[in-house]
Amino acid sequence: MDTNAAGRRYQAWYSKLLRLYPRPFRERFGGSMTQTFHDLCRERRNARRSLFGLVLWIFFETSRGIVRENTAQMTQMQKTVLRVALVALGLLMVPLVSSQVVEGWNWGPGAFVFTYVLFFGTGMAYALIARRMSAWAYKAAVGLALVAGFVLGWATMVHMSETENPVNLVYFGVLAVGAAGAGLARLEARGMARALFAMAASLAVAWVITQVLFSDTPAGPVWNVGVMHGGFVLIFATAGLLFRHASLAGSK
Protein backbone atom coordinates (compact mmCIF):
# COMPACT_ATOMS: atom_id res chain seq x y z
CA MET A 1 0.00 0.00 0.00
CA ASP A 2 1.21 3.50 -0.78
CA THR A 3 1.46 5.05 2.69
CA ASN A 4 1.30 8.62 1.41
CA ALA A 5 -1.82 7.86 -0.63
CA ALA A 6 -3.39 6.15 2.38
CA GLY A 7 -2.53 9.17 4.55
CA ARG A 8 -4.19 11.56 2.12
CA ARG A 9 -7.26 9.35 2.01
CA TYR A 10 -7.48 9.20 5.81
CA GLN A 11 -7.11 12.98 6.04
CA ALA A 12 -9.94 13.46 3.55
CA TRP A 13 -12.17 11.13 5.56
CA TYR A 14 -11.23 12.90 8.79
CA SER A 15 -12.15 16.29 7.31
CA LYS A 16 -15.56 14.91 6.36
CA LEU A 17 -15.97 13.44 9.85
CA LEU A 18 -15.30 16.84 11.46
CA ARG A 19 -18.25 18.29 9.54
CA LEU A 20 -20.53 16.36 11.90
CA TYR A 21 -19.53 18.62 14.79
CA PRO A 22 -21.82 21.57 15.58
CA ARG A 23 -20.79 24.56 13.51
CA PRO A 24 -19.55 26.77 16.42
CA PHE A 25 -17.32 23.95 17.70
CA ARG A 26 -16.08 23.16 14.20
CA GLU A 27 -15.21 26.78 13.46
CA ARG A 28 -13.31 27.10 16.74
CA PHE A 29 -11.41 23.80 16.85
CA GLY A 30 -11.68 22.23 13.40
CA GLY A 31 -8.46 23.73 12.04
CA SER A 32 -6.31 22.70 15.01
CA MET A 33 -7.83 19.20 15.05
CA THR A 34 -7.07 18.75 11.36
CA GLN A 35 -3.48 19.91 11.88
CA THR A 36 -3.02 17.57 14.85
CA PHE A 37 -4.32 14.64 12.83
CA HIS A 38 -1.95 15.53 9.99
CA ASP A 39 1.04 15.75 12.37
CA LEU A 40 0.27 12.41 14.03
CA CYS A 41 -0.03 10.69 10.65
CA ARG A 42 3.27 12.21 9.50
CA GLU A 43 5.06 11.05 12.67
CA ARG A 44 3.62 7.59 12.16
CA ARG A 45 4.83 7.48 8.56
CA ASN A 46 8.30 8.71 9.52
CA ALA A 47 8.52 5.90 12.06
CA ARG A 48 7.49 3.48 9.28
CA ARG A 49 4.55 2.25 11.30
CA SER A 50 1.06 1.40 10.09
CA LEU A 51 -1.47 4.22 10.09
CA PHE A 52 -4.53 2.02 10.37
CA GLY A 53 -4.49 1.48 14.14
CA LEU A 54 -3.84 5.16 14.88
CA VAL A 55 -6.54 6.33 12.46
CA LEU A 56 -9.06 3.84 13.86
CA TRP A 57 -8.44 5.09 17.41
CA ILE A 58 -8.64 8.79 16.38
CA PHE A 59 -11.84 8.20 14.42
CA PHE A 60 -13.38 6.44 17.41
CA GLU A 61 -12.44 9.24 19.83
CA THR A 62 -13.60 11.90 17.37
CA SER A 63 -16.93 10.13 16.91
CA ARG A 64 -17.41 10.13 20.68
CA GLY A 65 -16.69 13.85 20.73
CA ILE A 66 -19.19 14.46 17.93
CA VAL A 67 -21.94 12.63 19.83
CA ARG A 68 -21.08 14.50 23.04
CA GLU A 69 -21.04 17.96 21.44
CA ASN A 70 -24.21 17.40 19.43
CA THR A 71 -25.95 16.08 22.53
CA ALA A 72 -24.91 19.18 24.45
CA GLN A 73 -26.13 21.35 21.59
CA MET A 74 -29.46 19.56 21.46
CA THR A 75 -29.84 19.81 25.22
CA GLN A 76 -29.31 23.57 25.09
CA MET A 77 -31.87 23.84 22.28
CA GLN A 78 -34.36 21.80 24.27
CA LYS A 79 -33.85 24.07 27.27
CA THR A 80 -34.44 27.11 25.09
CA VAL A 81 -37.63 25.62 23.64
CA LEU A 82 -38.88 24.68 27.11
CA ARG A 83 -38.19 28.14 28.57
CA VAL A 84 -39.91 29.90 25.68
CA ALA A 85 -42.88 27.50 25.84
CA LEU A 86 -43.33 28.12 29.57
CA VAL A 87 -43.03 31.90 29.19
CA ALA A 88 -45.56 31.81 26.34
CA LEU A 89 -47.91 29.75 28.51
CA GLY A 90 -47.55 32.26 31.36
CA LEU A 91 -48.35 35.15 29.04
CA LEU A 92 -51.35 33.25 27.69
CA MET A 93 -52.79 33.24 31.20
CA VAL A 94 -53.38 36.99 30.93
CA PRO A 95 -56.00 36.87 28.14
CA LEU A 96 -57.31 33.53 29.45
CA VAL A 97 -58.06 34.96 32.90
CA SER A 98 -59.28 38.23 31.41
CA SER A 99 -61.79 36.38 29.26
CA GLN A 100 -63.36 35.03 32.44
CA VAL A 101 -63.66 38.36 34.26
CA VAL A 102 -64.03 40.96 31.51
CA GLU A 103 -67.55 41.28 30.18
CA GLY A 104 -67.84 40.95 26.42
CA TRP A 105 -64.54 39.08 25.99
CA ASN A 106 -65.74 36.31 23.69
CA TRP A 107 -62.61 34.62 22.33
CA GLY A 108 -63.02 31.14 20.96
CA PRO A 109 -60.49 28.32 21.37
CA GLY A 110 -58.91 29.16 18.03
CA ALA A 111 -58.05 32.67 19.19
CA PHE A 112 -56.21 31.34 22.24
CA VAL A 113 -54.31 28.83 20.12
CA PHE A 114 -53.32 31.61 17.71
CA THR A 115 -52.25 33.81 20.63
CA TYR A 116 -50.07 31.06 22.08
CA VAL A 117 -48.46 30.45 18.69
CA LEU A 118 -47.83 34.20 18.43
CA PHE A 119 -46.18 34.30 21.87
CA PHE A 120 -44.13 31.16 21.25
CA GLY A 121 -43.11 32.08 17.71
CA THR A 122 -41.96 35.54 18.74
CA GLY A 123 -39.93 34.20 21.66
CA MET A 124 -38.28 31.45 19.63
CA ALA A 125 -37.49 33.80 16.77
CA TYR A 126 -35.62 36.15 19.09
CA ALA A 127 -33.88 33.32 20.98
CA LEU A 128 -32.66 31.65 17.79
CA ILE A 129 -31.78 34.74 15.76
CA ALA A 130 -30.30 37.14 18.29
CA ARG A 131 -27.94 34.61 19.90
CA ARG A 132 -26.24 34.06 16.54
CA MET A 133 -25.30 37.71 16.23
CA SER A 134 -22.93 39.75 18.35
CA ALA A 135 -23.61 43.27 17.01
CA TRP A 136 -25.80 45.32 19.36
CA ALA A 137 -27.53 46.98 16.40
CA TYR A 138 -28.59 43.60 15.01
CA LYS A 139 -29.97 42.41 18.36
CA ALA A 140 -31.78 45.71 18.90
CA ALA A 141 -33.27 45.54 15.41
CA VAL A 142 -34.45 41.95 15.95
CA GLY A 143 -36.09 42.87 19.25
CA LEU A 144 -37.74 45.98 17.84
CA ALA A 145 -39.04 44.19 14.74
CA LEU A 146 -40.40 41.22 16.68
CA VAL A 147 -42.14 43.35 19.30
CA ALA A 148 -43.72 45.56 16.62
CA GLY A 149 -44.72 42.51 14.58
CA PHE A 150 -46.22 40.84 17.64
CA VAL A 151 -48.25 43.93 18.60
CA LEU A 152 -49.43 44.33 15.01
CA GLY A 153 -50.49 40.69 14.81
CA TRP A 154 -52.21 40.86 18.20
CA ALA A 155 -54.07 44.08 17.36
CA THR A 156 -55.17 42.66 14.02
CA MET A 157 -56.47 39.47 15.62
CA VAL A 158 -58.40 41.41 18.28
CA HIS A 159 -59.82 43.84 15.74
CA MET A 160 -60.94 41.02 13.44
CA SER A 161 -62.64 39.24 16.33
CA GLU A 162 -64.58 42.43 17.03
CA THR A 163 -65.46 43.48 13.48
CA GLU A 164 -65.18 40.21 11.48
CA ASN A 165 -64.07 42.33 8.52
CA PRO A 166 -61.84 40.25 6.19
CA VAL A 167 -60.16 43.35 4.76
CA ASN A 168 -58.01 43.46 7.89
CA LEU A 169 -56.24 40.32 6.70
CA VAL A 170 -53.94 42.67 4.77
CA TYR A 171 -52.09 43.27 8.05
CA PHE A 172 -51.18 39.61 8.23
CA GLY A 173 -49.85 40.17 4.72
CA VAL A 174 -47.44 42.74 6.20
CA LEU A 175 -46.15 40.10 8.61
CA ALA A 176 -45.88 37.62 5.74
CA VAL A 177 -43.75 40.12 3.82
CA GLY A 178 -41.38 40.33 6.78
CA ALA A 179 -41.20 36.56 7.22
CA ALA A 180 -40.57 35.99 3.52
CA GLY A 181 -37.96 38.75 3.43
CA ALA A 182 -36.11 37.28 6.42
CA GLY A 183 -36.11 33.87 4.75
CA LEU A 184 -34.76 35.24 1.48
CA ALA A 185 -32.14 37.28 3.35
CA ARG A 186 -31.07 34.23 5.36
CA LEU A 187 -30.97 36.57 8.36
CA GLU A 188 -28.08 38.59 6.94
CA ALA A 189 -28.18 42.21 8.10
CA ARG A 190 -28.26 43.79 4.65
CA GLY A 191 -31.18 41.64 3.49
CA MET A 192 -32.99 42.07 6.79
CA ALA A 193 -32.80 45.84 6.36
CA ARG A 194 -34.53 45.53 3.00
CA ALA A 195 -37.16 43.21 4.52
CA LEU A 196 -38.00 45.73 7.27
CA PHE A 197 -38.19 48.61 4.80
CA ALA A 198 -40.54 46.44 2.72
CA MET A 199 -42.70 45.86 5.82
CA ALA A 200 -42.88 49.61 6.46
CA ALA A 201 -43.95 50.23 2.87
CA SER A 202 -46.47 47.35 2.98
CA LEU A 203 -48.00 48.75 6.16
CA ALA A 204 -48.44 52.15 4.51
CA VAL A 205 -50.21 50.43 1.61
CA ALA A 206 -52.37 48.49 4.09
CA TRP A 207 -53.47 51.77 5.65
CA VAL A 208 -54.55 53.03 2.22
CA ILE A 209 -56.45 49.81 1.55
CA THR A 210 -58.33 49.75 4.86
CA GLN A 211 -58.96 53.49 5.32
CA VAL A 212 -59.21 54.89 1.81
CA LEU A 213 -60.36 52.13 -0.50
CA PHE A 214 -62.59 50.66 2.22
CA SER A 215 -63.54 53.80 4.08
CA ASP A 216 -66.49 52.06 5.74
CA THR A 217 -64.16 49.78 7.69
CA PRO A 218 -65.06 50.30 11.36
CA ALA A 219 -61.46 50.80 12.45
CA GLY A 220 -61.85 54.03 14.43
CA PRO A 221 -61.25 57.68 13.53
CA VAL A 222 -59.03 58.03 10.48
CA TRP A 223 -56.70 60.46 12.28
CA ASN A 224 -56.13 58.13 15.22
CA VAL A 225 -55.68 55.14 12.95
CA GLY A 226 -53.28 57.12 10.78
CA VAL A 227 -51.15 58.05 13.79
CA MET A 228 -51.09 54.40 14.90
CA HIS A 229 -50.09 53.22 11.44
CA GLY A 230 -47.48 55.94 11.20
CA GLY A 231 -45.99 54.77 14.49
CA PHE A 232 -45.68 51.20 13.25
CA VAL A 233 -44.20 52.37 9.95
CA LEU A 234 -41.63 54.39 11.90
CA ILE A 235 -40.76 51.41 14.11
CA PHE A 236 -40.26 49.05 11.16
CA ALA A 237 -38.20 51.68 9.34
CA THR A 238 -36.07 52.22 12.47
CA ALA A 239 -35.45 48.49 12.72
CA GLY A 240 -34.43 48.55 9.07
CA LEU A 241 -31.94 51.33 9.76
CA LEU A 242 -30.49 49.36 12.67
CA PHE A 243 -30.05 46.33 10.42
CA ARG A 244 -28.37 48.58 7.86
CA HIS A 245 -26.05 49.91 10.58
CA ALA A 246 -25.17 46.34 11.56
CA SER A 247 -24.49 45.53 7.91
CA LEU A 248 -22.19 48.53 7.47
CA ALA A 249 -20.38 47.57 10.66
CA GLY A 250 -19.59 44.21 9.11
CA SER A 251 -22.13 42.14 11.03
CA LYS A 252 -23.46 39.07 9.31
Could you list some keywords that capture this structure?
mainly alpha; 252 residues; 2 domains; single chain; 0% strand
Order of SSEs: HHHHHHHH
Secondary structure: helix percent: over 70%
End-to-end Cα distance, whole Å, is 47 Å
The figure for the number of domains is 2
Beta-strand percentage?
under 5%
User: Which structural class fits the helix and strand makeup?
Assistant: mainly alpha
**Tally of DSSP β-strands:** 0
Shape: elongated
Number of helices: 8
* Mean pLDDT, all residues: 81
Uncertain residue segments: 217-223
**CA radius of gyration:** 26 Å
Biggest β-sheet strands, sense, barrel: none
Task: Describe the overall structure.
The chain has about 250 residues and is mainly α. The chain has 2 domains: about 1-105; about 105-250. It contains 8 helices and no strands. The protein has helices at about 5-20, 25-45, 50-100, 110-130, 135-165, 170-185, 190-215, 220-250. Helix 1 (about 5-20) packs antiparallel against helix 2 (about 25-45), helix 4 (about 110-130) packs antiparallel against helix 5 and helix 7 (about 190-215) packs antiparallel against helix 8. The longest helix has about 50 residues, at about 50-100. The chain is elongated, with a radius of gyration of 26 Å. The protein starts with a helix and ends with a helix.
